[in-house]
Amino acid sequence: MLRLFAKQTVEMRVPRQSVPIHHYLKQPRRLVHALMNPAQVEEISQDTFRFHLRGFQFLMLKIQPVVDLRIDVSKDHFLTVQSVRCKIYGNDFVDRQFHLNLSGELRLKDRATVTDLNGDVNLAIAVALPPILKMTPHPILETTGNQILKGVLTTMKQRLLRQLAVDYKRWSQQQSTAASPNLKLDQKPA
């Protein structure tokens, strides 16, 4: 069994808007679209999403992972992400012998003018080697596999850093604009 692992941490500071960011993060779909290209995401339920990752070549194997992730936003200022299912397209042998575990968390700490977001994600894979790769030295397979996993997590982190604050600001402005007419309608004339 080949075991691969990658870890990524994120620290970012997001300027506070009129609506606190923890309200924004209570909507898993928004977070998912900040992490992944929306064209690669399928909503399974309110808190579970299917990610169609781009296919890639791992030495002599071409595979395309599809991972279901559950996002738990039930606690204020804290959310978790956990893989619940994975399917590998492109190689039935690998699919039957493939185990993926992704777990991550994001913590929020409100300050006067900003909210600090800190989190980490761990990605572990265990896979039985198909006959074509059994003669390849394990260190080569581990190094190559770990680099691929690290690349996946780095891409997600970069997208989160670029997209989250921008989308949160846009969402907050939309919420404020939508609430403004209601406030004016409810006010009594002077």
Could you walk me through the main structural features you see in this protein, from its secondary elements to its overall organization?
This protein has 190 residues and is α+β, with helices and mostly antiparallel strands. Helices cover 35% and strands 42% of the residues. The protein has 4 helices and 8 strands, in the order E-H-H-E-E-E-E-E-H-E-E-H. Strands 1, 2, 3, 4, 5, 6, 7 and 8 form an 8-stranded antiparallel sheet that branches. Helix 2 (28-35) packs across helix 4 (138-186).
Number of strands: 8
Low-pLDDT residue spans: 183-190
- CA distance, first residue to last residue: 76 Å
Number of helices: 4
**Largest sheet entry:** 8 strands, antiparallel
Question: How would you state the average pLDDT, rounded?
Answer: 86
Molecular shape = elongated
Structural Rg? 20 Å
Q: Helix amount, in percent? A: 25-40%
Order of helices and strands: EHHEEEEEHEEH
Report strand %: 35-45%
Quick synopsis:
It contains four helices and eight strands; from the N terminus they run βααβββββαββα.
Please give the structural blueprint:
Layout: E1 2-15, H1 21-24, H2 28-35, E2 41-43, E3 48-52, E4 56-58, E5 61-75, E6 78-89, H3 92-96, E7 98-110, E8 114-127, H4 138-186
Antiparallel strand pairs: 1-8, 2-3, 3-5, 4-5, 5-6, 6-7, 7-8
Helix pairs in contact: 2-4
